[in-house]
Structure formats: structure tokens, C-alpha cells
Write a structure and sequence with these properties.
Blueprint (H helix, E strand, L loop, with lengths): L1 H33 L11 H5 L1 E2 L1 H15 L6 E8 L4 E2 L6 E4 L9 E11 L2 E21 L14 E7 L18 E2 L14 E2 L2 E3 L4 E8 L2 E9 L3 E2 L3 E6 L5 E8 L2 E5 L1
Parallel strand pairs: 11-16
Antiparallel strand pairs: 1-3, 2-6, 4-5, 5-6, 6-7, 8-9, 10-13, 11-12, 12-14, 14-15, 15-16
Length: 262
């Protein structure tokens, strides 16, 4: 009887121990399930927090380069970044950026730039940067409609900033370049004046009454004539002698004065 009781007690204790172990295991598993995993923030990542080249940094590097490349006629440059749009991871330390000059100047519009990343003068990588480039210039525009052959005065002009379509547009940038000249064709108000749109003014016009000077062999004769066309100073014009009715070829030497050599 005593042996049977001991055996039953051993079985009972073993059962209790097993139950405690199972309960402990289940509780440990439940605790692991309920405990959230640690969150890794971008700021804790060494590459993301300290060593990322941002797209805006690349845009500014391109802008600095273009401000030097386009200096002069272009007064303002704007750069819109197309690619890349995401930050670029690099190794640790300060990163310098510089655009590698191309073989030729490409001007305005959509362009591809190669930006070299370096540290302490040692190249690390080259990034392709696709951007839209816009340029602005201060140009001379009429403040009113200027008619063909009309002489341009200072009061007829103003200077304004305009967006350029390309760098080959030969706009006037200094009012002194056109003051005193005449329009080849009508110049619309507030539209940029091109160099080819102006010329020296006519010293004589068609139908003008002019003085004809004839010099030669120690003689000097003056008479009056009517011009058949307009002409600038130094040009030759056809003039009808008012006395004889004959047409002469004479050189314009001043406003209202032509000369015939014989």
C-alpha cells in the first residue's frame, strides 16, 4: 500500500511540473507575439541620415555651372530638375559636386548634365542629371508702334526682361544701339527689337527737294533737284535737275544735300 501511494504521488508531481512548463512556454510565446518589433527610422540609418545627395543639391550644382556658362547676354537662368527625383546614397563625409563641362555649349531647353561627386578632390561617382534650362535677358522694346523709316528717339524705347527661346536671337540690349536709327519695318510695342530691324536713317527721302552741288576743275555750281528715292548718308541717289529736267547720279553728303563730281 505504501509503495502504491508513493507511485501515485510521483505521477501527480510529474503532472504538475509538466503543466507548469507548458503554461510557461505558452506565456513566453504570447509575450513574444505581443511585443512589437523595434522600428528602424530613416534618421537612424547612417546612409539615409548623413550621406544622401538630395536632388535639390544636384539642381543647384547645375545652376551654378550655367550661371557661368551663360553669363553676359543672359541675365537670369532657371533650372527645373527632371531626373533624378530620389536621393542618392553615398559613403560618409562631405561631398562636393561639380558639372563636367561638355564638348560644346548646348544652350537652352532640355539638357543632360554629368555631375561629378567627389570628396577631398577624389572622384567618387558621376550622376546624370536631366534638366530643363530657361534663360532670360534684358532687351530693348518700343514703348509705342514705330513705323517704317521712322527715326527712333530715346523716348520711344524701354528695357524689359524676356524669356529667350534660344541663344541665337540677336536682340538689342542697349538703347544707344538704335537711337537715331530708323525702322526697316514696323516695330510693335513691347516686342524685342532685333538688330536687323533697324538701319541708318535716310538723309534724303523720295521726293525731297535737295541742293545739288557740282564740283570739278576748280568750279563749284549749285542747283536744285528732286530725289527719285531715299538714301542714307554716303549712298548714291538719282536726282532730277529742276532746271534742265535731266536725271543725275549724286552722292548724299548731308541732309538735303547731294554732290556730283565732274
Amino acid at each position: 500500500m505504501t509503495g502504491a501511494r508513493v507511485s501515485k504521488k510521483c505521477v501527480c508531481v510529474a503532472g504538475i511540473v509538466t503543466a507548469v512548463l507548458v503554461a510557461t512556454t505558452v506565456e513566453a510565446k504570447a509575450e513574444r507575439i505581443m511585443t512589437p518589433a523595434p522600428v528602424v527610422r530613416a534618421a537612424d540609418h547612417p546612409l539615409r541620415s548623413r550621406h544622401m545627395v538630395q536632388p535639390e543639391q544636384l539642381r543647384r550644382a547645375v545652376l551654378r555651372y550655367l550661371e557661368g556658362e551663360l553669363s553676359g547676354f543672359v541675365r537670369e537662368v532657371q533650372v527645373t530638375l527632371i531626373e533624378p527625383q530620389d536621393p542618392i546614397p553615398t559613403s560618409g563625409g562631405r561631398i562636393d559636386m561639380a558639372v563636367i563641362p561638355g564638348m560644346r555649349e548646348e544652350g537652352l531647353g532640355r539638357r543632360m548634365f554629368h555631375v561629378q561627386l567627389s570628396r577631398n578632390g577624389r572622384p567618387l561617382d558621376t550622376v546624370e542629371v536631366l534638366s530643363d534650362v530657361a534663360g532670360f535677358a534684358d532687351v530693348v522694346v518700343p514703348s509705342r508702334l514705330i513705323k517704317t523709316d521712322e527715326v527712333i528717339d530715346r523716348e520711344d524705347l524701354t528695357v524689359t526682361r524676356v524669356k529667350l527661346l534660344d541663344l541665337k536671337q540677336q536682340f538689342v540690349t542697349d538703347p544707344n544701339e538704335v537711337i537715331g536709327k530708323s525702322a526697316v519695318r514696323p516695330l510693335q510695342s513691347q516686342l524685342p527689337i532685333r538688330l536687323a530691324s533697324v538701319k541708318k536713317p535716310y538723309a534724303v527721302r523720295k521726293g525731297d527737294r535737295v541742293t545739288i552741288e557740282a564740283k570739278g576743275r576748280g568750279l563749284s555750281i549749285q542747283t536744285v533737284g528732286i530725289t527719285k528715292s531715299g538714301a542714307e548718308l554716303g549712298q548714291t541717289v538719282t536726282v532730277t535737275n529742276s532746271d534742265s529736267g535731266k536725271e543725275l547720279r549724286a552722292k548724299v553728303i548731308g541732309p538735303g544735300v547731294v554732290r556730283v563730281d565732274f
